[in-house]
């Protein structure tokens, strides 16, 4: 039986990129199709107020990345916070990527803020600090595509930091077997990252832009992280075999 995953899509990509990349929800569907655990997905754009009908349950809820701040005051972010806290209180499994990683840290007692390090762009490598049974295939380090200026600067008290580097000390964390979050974007592909970088050249400046663009030639392990995420959701069930 396939896992059921609710994708809470927290942004709309630039209009000129929709035809090729569709949106973050579709990117995740395409990513997870490359890993071996069967899963079915439904996408709800929470910026537009879309949520599952009351009483509908999923095996996990995934909060995507976004250009918005996790600590922002927009009404849709307030609604999302309430929904996510309700899911956490109900014991549901939660997955967070970038904005979602930061939002969950903030909601569960950590700290998220503008990073003194500035923008993180391109491909960065992280050291895996803790190993778990669901981290299959195993890796001691992995690289992910990133674009962020906010970071989790203090993890929730009961969180375990799973991956880090000097630029982003809390690049991934879990809370027991319920919450798993990543700062990087396993769903991104190099072509989409190039388009994002081209669209923000004035924002990050020429030197950082050139460095980030050059890094896109490096391999990244988004598919490994995707398998870890699905094994995290499936642990203890027949799907994890």
TrEMBL record:
SUPFAM superfamilies (alphabetical): Class I glutamine amidotransferase-like (SSF52317)
Q: Name one Pfam family in it.
A: GATase
Identify the InterPro entries for this entry.
ChyE-like, Class_I_gatase-like, GATASE
Domain Glutamine amidotransferase as annotated: residue spans: 86-191
Task: Give the protein's recorded name.
Answer: Amidotransferase
Tell me the lineage of the source organism. Bacteria, Pseudomonadati, Pseudomonadota, Gammaproteobacteria, Pseudomonadales
């Amino acid at each position: 039986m396939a896992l059921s995953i609710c994708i809470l899509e927290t942004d709309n990509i630039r209009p000129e990129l929709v035809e090729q990349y569709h949106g973050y929800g579709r990117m995740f569907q395409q990513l997870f199709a490359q890993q071996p655990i069967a899963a079915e997905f439904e996408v709800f754009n929470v910026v537009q107020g879309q949520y599952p009908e009351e009483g509908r349950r999923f095996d996990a809820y995934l909060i995507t990345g976004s250009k918005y701040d996790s600590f922002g005051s927009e009404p849709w972010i307030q609604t999302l916070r309430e929904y996510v806290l309700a899911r956490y209180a109900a014991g549901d499994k939660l997955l967070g990527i970038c904005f979602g990683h930061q939002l969950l840290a903030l909601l569960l007692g950590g700290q998220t803020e503008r990073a003194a390090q500035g923008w993180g762009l391109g491909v960065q490598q992280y050291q895996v600090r803790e190993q778990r049974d669901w981290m299959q295939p195993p890796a001691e380090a992995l690289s992910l595509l990133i674009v962020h200026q906010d970071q989790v600067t203090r993890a929730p008290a009961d969180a375990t930091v799973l991956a880090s580097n000097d630029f982003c000390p809390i690049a991934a964390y879990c809370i027991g077997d319920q919450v798993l979050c990543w700062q990087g974007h396993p769903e991104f592909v190099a072509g989409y990252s190039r388009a994002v970088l081209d669209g923000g050249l004035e924002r990050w400046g020429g030197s950082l832009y050139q460095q980030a663009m050059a890094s896109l030639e490096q391999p990244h392990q988004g598919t490994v992280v995707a398998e870890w995420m699905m094994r995290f959701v499936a642990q203890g069930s027949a799907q994890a075999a």
